[in-house]
């Protein structure tokens, strides 16, 4: 067996070991050793092999329909495998400290390791079937880990919400997978790309719908899946609730990797999206709405994890903006279109994975220090933690500045790449120009809320007794922070210079467009404005009242109520389903139950009463019945032999 | 004397036995009636043997076994009736109706 298979399988083996430890409840503390080693081993194989391909047939349907399991280690997968294994290993190391006194210690690591295996399976897929299976597997891992503290009703509800809301998108994704694979007669990406090309040329008939419809319908159905999984408007509502899970899980799954799966999928299958402008425009508009909406909500949140959750949604919106913008096509081919937008989105995905994982882990470090408090997530009862938790504070600042997109932190380079792609697109599409303006405004909002988060948490004087007595976390927790902090500062610049990222991703050695000084200048100015505003409002010794509460009350309540999106879904999503359920329940109770418990029950009852009378307990009457029955049978048989010829013929023998 | 005469006698015997078994209230009389029905069956059996297959021996053996069984049945039946009398204080079959639904 080629060693490349171990990329997804090693964490699975780690998960099995941790699972056995969890079930036997023996030596739970050694579970992370196996899972971390397995994760690092996967990453090591990927780095060692760099490129590779392995494929095995899983099922064959009919003569030609082949369902394969693949490990396709190309440039894009290589990037994702590096991100996933690095973040996963660091998060697991951090979890050793964070989850120390929790029940279900080994179970936690088993779940995280299954997640890592599924995510690696997802990014190494070379066919839609495996992609879809792993897509659902990471979904179930997310469900299990959000509901890790299942005894809390809020956690159980959040897990269900995440699962059900992403299901809305996944229905579309499944339909897209079926539509494309039935047209192509194969699940392999290259076959599907060639089929799409043939359809656009009018060389191939399409199932169910006309070729014109197919060209926009199939990619948009796939995009539905990305909207659910990557928490894009209007299905973003599950991600903030998913913060009920343990914080390292939020860092790994709900910031760095799983929620980026939608972006990865669109990047991987971008050839399918590029045929009709309306498809990329939809991606662009959805990304724009998502980025703006969630950045505005993040400004007024007081829960440290909720701020980061909305920030994640907003940054995922950025990635979608980059994908939708397309930018300049670098490497056009049937099976692999590469655009500057794609490169920018993947670049931002990579740097975002680093700094957002870092921010979540620092938030977890703070929450860990305050975990005796009644609401350890509430930033209003924090403050002054810089002196008490210096490593957390400084690494968090690195993450905040990277998120704000300040030169020369990681976020600056990737965010600027997205702006560049939007600017290139804006000459062709007016909507991209508008999106660029919105994206720059969102950059300012991002800078504001990220520094607000940092200042409310670490600056000034403690606003509660728990914050007063907070202590720095142990080294297993701070070491991952330092590593991620280092990456948040330097990774973006390192990958930008010499076009390392773009060249690695496209496999081409060509210079991409240099940084546009005007655009970079504007985005830096906007970011500095956001940072400066936050500094002016929040860098005070004693923060008596949160300045954002003095926004006009209509605006403030609009933002605090999350743009009424949850209310919208409750009204128009959930309420209709509940009303329909009520109607069905009424029908069931009053019509179905009446018929079922009415007619057959009446028949049974009356029949029972009638038959009851025959059970007299008199043996003699039973015997009479037997005699009568036997007589009846004999007479019938004789009568039949008389009138009916056939097998029942009884010959009367006479002497 | 041909086969049908014997069969008529046997049928009468069986019907008299059945009538007795179904109508008498005294358990001992019921058992006596059942003995009549058994004998009717034996007579039927022997009649067919005598007129149709006189050369074979098996029917005689069957009937002998039948008679033995009838004797055993009478013994068991009387023992059952004795126990019923002990439990219920009567051997009137109408009063013994615990199985009534």
Task: Describe the protein in words.
The complex is a heterodimer of chains A (655) and B (101). By secondary structure, chain A is mostly helical. Helix content of chain A is 71%, strand content 4%. In chain A, the strands form 2 sheets. Chain A has a two-stranded antiparallel sheet with strand order 1-2. In chain A, strands 3-4 form a two-stranded antiparallel sheet. In chain A, strand 3 and strand 4 (338-339) form a beta hairpin. The longest helix of chain A has 50 residues, at 565-614. The relative contact order of chain A is 0.07. With 101 residues, chain B is an all-alpha fold. Chain B has one domain (3-98): Helix Hairpins, CATH 1.10.287.3510. The longest helix of chain B has 31 residues, at 58-88. Chain B is elongated.
Q: How would you sum up the global shape of chain B? A: elongated
Question: In the CATH hierarchy, what is the architecture of chain B at level 2?
Answer: Orthogonal Bundle
Low-confidence stretches of chain A: none
Q: What structural category do the secondary elements of chain B indicate?
A: mainly alpha
Radius of gyration of chain A: 32 Å
- Decide which structural class fits the backbone of chain A: mainly alpha
Rounded Rg of chain B: 17 Å
Strand content range of chain A: under 5%
Q: Give the beta-strand count of chain B.
A: 0
Q: How many distinct beta strands of chain A?
A: 4
Distance between the termini of chain B: 50 Å
Main sheet summary of chain B: none
Q: What are the secondary-structure elements of chain A, in order, as H or E?
A: HHEEHHHHHHHHHHHHEEHHHHHHHHHHHH
What is the compact description of this entry?
The complex is a heterodimer of chains A (655) and B (101). Chain A has helices at residues 6-24, 31-49, 75-98, 105-123, 128-146, 153-184, 189-200, 211-229, 238-241, 247-256, 261-268, 270-273, 277-300, 304-325, 340-369, 385-388, 390-404, 410-426, 430-458, 465-468, 475-496, 500-506, 517-538, 553-560, 565-614, 619-643, and strands at 52-61, 65-73, 329-331, 338-339.
